[in-house]
């Protein structure tokens, strides 16, 4: 917003962690730019990373709608992600054991419907439970879903997974042939190491556009929902469920709505993943996916969408950074290193900053709960908007 | 295999689950949060035993097909698991100023750290203790029971540990304090119980039993960095079935869940032979009640118990 017209005032208006995040993000962006220009980071791979970051941001948005808004401890993120991925993969892939060969849009709709049904199936029994029971029960039901996907070969191909998935834009008028029709470009920034932009680059950029569309639409919907009376009820439930009930709200119904909304967003992330990775296997339903999303949300700040975005980027940095580190410097198996980093991040956040790095601001219901009420807050939402645009 | 054979297998597996579930239940009631790092504490115990056994060797003689060195390794495994848990409590959980949900989330991070460290050190492959696998006991084979002396040792050690815990809880000062604290921590503190110290002892006992369970799990199956995490949900199912906060409930729940888990192939045989009508229901049941879904059945039981009888078999506060 005002960052362009009056950058100094805009920066002075930021809180300290916001400045930190802005500074680190800017440095990281410069680093990536340098890596791109020198050819150390292939542009196609870079776009793949951006797509992945967008996917994790989507997952975190979904979890945020459940945990951040309503306080539901959902440990079945991987199940919804997986059902979204499998739903679209089974509808569109050549090697699909059931239908297959449909337009990816059909896959999208089927995936969302499946996620809706699964959300009801998991939500109806578990949402009445106490918070910690909900955590255990949802993790258990996610494992049940994973076991079904792994073992019902007639339906899912079992451990072999589903291959031969088309790109999301297959069958669209212009976009389906866009990568092939675009000319190959050759950019020479530094003499001797030209950067080639070929078909795969254009395909990757289409994917990035797709995830930007998904994430952007989700972000807008969530922000609108968060500010609406509906969102206020959810926040009341999170803070004090008995109070919400005393005010005459049917909390079970509100929790279910928030659960379904979040689950649909997670399935959307799964659909995107299918068309990004072009392969889906039962390993994608591993509980680690759930905890990636959790780390992204609690690191960014529960209830904060720009925090979720930031968390998604951090997750991809950890995921791909460990792989890079293994290739370049330390010969440590990236899988445990990644696990270690995730664990350390969880513990460190809970120890030093349980509210997350970019907690939602000026949205709490009781003024006494706002710690810096005296610092002349701008109109609600402005800061959220600004942060959302600047974090990358 | 006969019913007796499945029951015998169930008894062995139950012993391991019981050892795990007691610790989880103790920590749940006294430290007041669902400890997701409990499964990985079992893994820590198992790998500590692996290292010790590799270092000291057999030490001469053997009991029940297990060399003396293995029992030393078992003790070391228990001790290491307890020390690691107490260290974690002191370093991580105690300084935290958050509610039980925050502790739950933190314990997931702890679980990942344990597993990652083990995986970095030992790799992600399956390993075994360097102990010769035994043949099933000949005298029992005619009855369809195929258990080895090792299995007998697992059940026997578990019984000894559980009996010891029973004595500790019922007849010692520490046990009374622990029960008081599980019942009402504030009341316990104003009556002069040093709740912090009791909490530490809870961690020692809970993690020690988990370590023992991990060592036996490694003997029963194999060792891998994921062994504990894979069992964690089954143990949660046992604790919830038994009733959170009740040690005796956890024992009963662990026993039942272990039995159900190992009896799944028997149940699937029963489903196959029953004339269930209509046909589609029969087909669905036949495919769902199978060995691949043994864990899934435990999870579904867990959710059903949470819905119908959240206090479990024993009910809250029956410690």
Automatic annotation (TrEMBL), chain A:
CDD domains: TM_PBP1_LivM_like (cd06581). One of its GO terms (molecular function) is branched-chain amino acid transmembrane transporter activity. Its main location: membrane. GO terms for cellular component: plasma membrane. The keyword Transmembrane helix applies. It comes from the Archaea. Residues 383-392 have a biased composition (Basic and acidic residues). InterPro entries: ABC_transp_permease (IPR001851), LivM-like (IPR043428). The chain crosses the membrane at residues 20-39, 45-65, 72-93, 105-124, 131-149, 201-222, 259-279, 291-316. It is a multi-pass membrane protein. Keywords: Cell membrane, Membrane, Transmembrane, Transmembrane helix. The keyword Transmembrane applies. It is found in: Cell membrane. This is Branched-chain amino acid ABC transporter permease. It comes from Halorubrum salipaludis.
TrEMBL record, chain B:
It is a multi-pass membrane protein. Keywords: Amino-acid transport, Cell inner membrane, Cell membrane, Membrane, Transmembrane, Transmembrane helix, Transport. The keyword Transport applies. Its main location: membrane. Pfam families: BPD_transp_2 (PF02653). It is found in: Cell membrane. InterPro entries: ABC_transp_permease, BCAA_transport_permease. GO terms for biological process: D-alanine transmembrane transport; L-alanine transport; L-isoleucine import across plasma membrane. GO terms for molecular function: L-isoleucine transmembrane transporter activity; L-leucine transmembrane transporter activity; L-phenylalanine transmembrane transporter activity; L-valine transmembrane transporter activity. GO terms for cellular component: plasma membrane. Belongs to the binding-protein-dependent transport system permease family. LivHM subfamily. This is Branched-chain amino acid ABC transporter permease. It comes from Halorubrum salipaludis.
């Amino acid at each position: 917003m005002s960052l362009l017209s009056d950058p100094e005032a805009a920066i002075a208006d930021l809180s300290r962690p916001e400045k930190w995040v802005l500074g680190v993000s800017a440095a990281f962006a410069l680093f990536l730019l340098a890596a791109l220009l020198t050819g150390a980071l292939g542009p196609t791979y870079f776009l793949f990373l951006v797509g992945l970051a967008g996917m994790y941001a989507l997952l975190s948005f979904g979890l945020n709608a459940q945990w951040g808004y309503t306080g539901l401890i959902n440990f079945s993120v991987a199940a919804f992600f997986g059902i979204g991925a499998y739903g679209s993969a089974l509808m569109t892939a050549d090697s699909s054991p059931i239908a297959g060969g449909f337009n990816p849009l059909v896959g999208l709709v089927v995936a969302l419907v499946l996620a809706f049904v699964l959300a009801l199936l998991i939500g109806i029994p578990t949402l009445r439970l106490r918070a910690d029971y909900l955590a255990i029960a949802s993790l258990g039901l996610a494992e049940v879903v994973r076991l079904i996907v792994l073992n019902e070969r007639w339906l899912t191909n079992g451990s072999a997974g589903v291959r031969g998935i088309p790109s999301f834009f297959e069958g669209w008028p212009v976009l389906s042939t866009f990568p092939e029709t675009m000319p190959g470009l050759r950019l020479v920034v530094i003499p001797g190491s030209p950067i080639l932009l070929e078909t795969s680059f254009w395909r990757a950029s289409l994917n990035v556009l797709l995830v930007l569309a998904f994430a952007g639409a989700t972000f807008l919907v969530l922000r609108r929902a968060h500010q609406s009376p509906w969102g206020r009820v959810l926040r009341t439930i999170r803070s004090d469920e008995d109070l919400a009930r005393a005010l005459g709200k049917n909390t079970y119904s509100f929790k279910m709505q928030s659960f379904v909304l979040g689950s649909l967003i997670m399935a959307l992330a799964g659909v995107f993943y299918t068309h990004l990775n072009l392969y889906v296997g039962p390993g994608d339903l591993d509980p680690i996916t759930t905890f990636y999303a959790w780390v992204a949300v609690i690191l960014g700040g529960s209830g904060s969408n720009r925090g979720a975005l930031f968390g998604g980027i951090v997750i991809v940095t950890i995921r791909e950074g460990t792989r890079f580190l293994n290739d370049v410097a330390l010969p440590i198996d990236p899988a445990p290193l990644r696990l270690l980093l995730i664990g350390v991040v969880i513990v460190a956040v809970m120890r030093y900053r349980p509210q997350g790095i970019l907690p939602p601001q000026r949205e709490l219901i009781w003024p006494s709960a706002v710690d810096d009420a005296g610092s002349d807050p701008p109109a609600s939402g402005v800061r959220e908007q600004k942060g959302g645009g600047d974090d990358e | 295999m006969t019913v007796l054979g499945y029951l015998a297998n169930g008894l062995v597996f139950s012993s391991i689950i019981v050892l795990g579930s007691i610790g989880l239940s103790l920590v749940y009631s006294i430290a007041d949060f669902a400890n997701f790092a409990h499964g990985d504490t079992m893994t820590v115990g198992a790998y500590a035993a692996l290292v010790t056994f590799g270092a000291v060797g057999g030490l001469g003689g053997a009991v029940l097909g297990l060399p003396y060195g293995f029992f030393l390794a078992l003790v070391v495994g228990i001790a290491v698991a307890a020390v690691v848990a107490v260290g974690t409590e002191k370093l991580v959980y105690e300084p935290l100023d958050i509610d039980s949900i925050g502790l739950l989330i933190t314990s997931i991070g702890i679980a990942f750290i344990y597993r990652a460290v083990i995986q970095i050190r030992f790799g992600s492959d399956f390993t075994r203790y360097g102990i010769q696998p035994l043949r099933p006991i000949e005298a029992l084979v005619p009855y369809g029971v195929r258990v080895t002396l090792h299995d007998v040792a697992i059940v026997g050690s578990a019984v000894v540990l559980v009996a010891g815990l029973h004595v500790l809880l019922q007849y010692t000062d520490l046990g009374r304090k622990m029960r008081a604290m599980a019942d009402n921590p504030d009341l316990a503190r104003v009556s002069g119980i040093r709740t912090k110290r009791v909490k530490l002892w809870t961690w020692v006992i809970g993690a020690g039993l988990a370590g023992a369970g991990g060592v036996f799990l490694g003997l029963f199956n194999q060792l891998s960095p994921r062994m504990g995490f894979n069992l964690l949900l089954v143990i949660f199912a046992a604790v919830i079935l038994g009733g959170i906060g009740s040690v005796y409930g956890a024992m009963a729940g662990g026993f039942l869940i272990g039995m159900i888990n190992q009896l799944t192939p028997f149940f699937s045989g029963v489903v196959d032979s029953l004339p269930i009508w209509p046909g589609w229901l029969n087909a669905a049941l036949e495919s769902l009640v199978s060995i691949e879904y043994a864990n899934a059945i435990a999870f579904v039981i867990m959710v059903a118990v949470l819905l119908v009888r959240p206090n479990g078999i024993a009910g809250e506060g029956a410690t």
